[in-house]
Specification:
This protein is an all-alpha fold. The chain contains 11 helices and 2 strands, in the order ααααααααββααα.
């Protein structure tokens, strides 16, 4: 036989012959020990052997079946134990994968919290703004359910993540993103408006559904205010101020003090002055009713100017802010852990 199944089937066939399913056990044909032997010698011995075989055969077959059945039971238990072990191992592996996935998600959410409330660079600031978008998206879903209970139906699907609502090009410009996209921010999507009665219900529902997130945002604002004091000191430092003349020289290569409304009122003495000068060319064209293609062309040109001139000074303050960030987080470790826990409770297991 080539397998345990084949051995079991053969044993079953033997069992049917020995133990017929429609009858009793076959009678045992025992030798007649009371009448003695009629003949002696080899024939008598052969006769005894022959008679012994008659009644030993069913017992031998039954014993064979019993051995196979016993083996089958052992095999069954072994197979069951092996299956249980395999199933347990599969569960352990699945649980390990789930735990690892949740650990990765928790780390990503923790990084998002740090970027949202203590960003040291433009890319971190952009990343952190997604936390606000995630909260808004989750709150929208709850608001839609609240409005449905009052008979109003709005979409619970948020607009795609849009940096136009969050980008800070004056203190935290994301130069790699601007260089890649050739625009300061993405086009702004207009928000939905509702009839007066519906708007009133919307405002009520939005206030109600925002309550669970209030603790997170309040705690985050406290940490955020402390961090931006560090940022302000860094960006007003002597090292950053020393980079202003190079910024002004670069702006002069691109036309400063020429301005959409005449000439700039004064020299560039801060990064904010530079940002205002660049933005004026876009705002001025927009206020004059420039076409979309004209605005896109201006955006492409001035975003390149902005990145070129801003890179040295932004590099100085980003290095200083990155150096200050670990110590600040260490000093406020308790606040950060609290924010991490609150964010996990509210946003854990959500798609990123």
């Amino acid at each position: 036989m080539n397998s345990a199944d084949e051995r079991l089937r053969a044993a079953a066939r033997d069992a049917v012959r020995v133990f017929p399913p429609d009858g009793d056990l076959p009678p045992l044909r025992l030798p007649d020990l009371t009448g003695g032997y009629r003949r002696s010698g080899v024939r008598t011995a052969a006769s005894r052997i022959g008679r012994a075989r008659v009644w030993l055969a069913p017992i031998a077959a039954a014993a064979a079946v019993a051995l196979v059945i016993a083996g089958a039971v052992v095999l069954h238990h072994s197979t069951t134990r092996a299956a249980a072990a395999a199933s347990g191992l599969a569960r352990q592996r699945a649980n390990a994968r789930l735990a690892a996935a949740q650990k990765r998600q928790r780390r990503a959410l923790d990084a998002l919290v740090v970027a949202a409330f203590t960003p040291a660079t433009g890319p971190q600031y952009d990343l952190g703004s997604k936390l606000t978008w995630m909260i808004d998206a989750q709150q929208l879903s709850a608001t839609a359910r609240c409005m449905a209970a009052s008979g109003y139906h709005i979409s619970d699907q948020p607009a795609p993540f849009n940096l136009a609502m969050f980008a800070n090009n004056t203190q935290m410009p994301d130069l790699p993103r601007i260089a890649r996209t050739h625009e300061f921010v993405a086009p702004v999507a207009t928000g939905a408006s509702y009839p007066k009665a519906e708007q009133k219900v919307f405002n009520t529902c939005q206030a109600k559904t925002g309550v669970p997130y209030q603790q997170l945002m309040t705690a985050g604002e406290t940490l955020d205010n402390s961090w931006w004091q560090v940022v302000s000191r860094v960006q007003a430092s002597a090292q950053v101020q020393a980079a202003i003349p190079a910024l002004a020289t670069c702006a002069a290569r691109y036309g400063f003090p020429s301005y959409p409304y005449g000439n700039a009122s004064g020299p560039i003495t801060s990064f904010s002055d530079f940002m205002t000068w660049v933005a004026g060319f876009l705002d001025g064209a927009g206020s004059r009713g420039a076409s979309t293609s004209t605005l896109q062309s201006l955006d492409r040109h001035w975003s390149a100017v902005f990145v070129t001139c801003a890179r040295p000074i932004v590099g100085v303050w980003q290095r200083m802010q990155l150096a200050a960030q670990p110590g600040f987080l260490g000093r406020h470790a308790g606040q950060v852990r609290k924010l991490d826990d609150l964010a996990w409770q509210l946003l854990g297991h959500q798609p990123r």
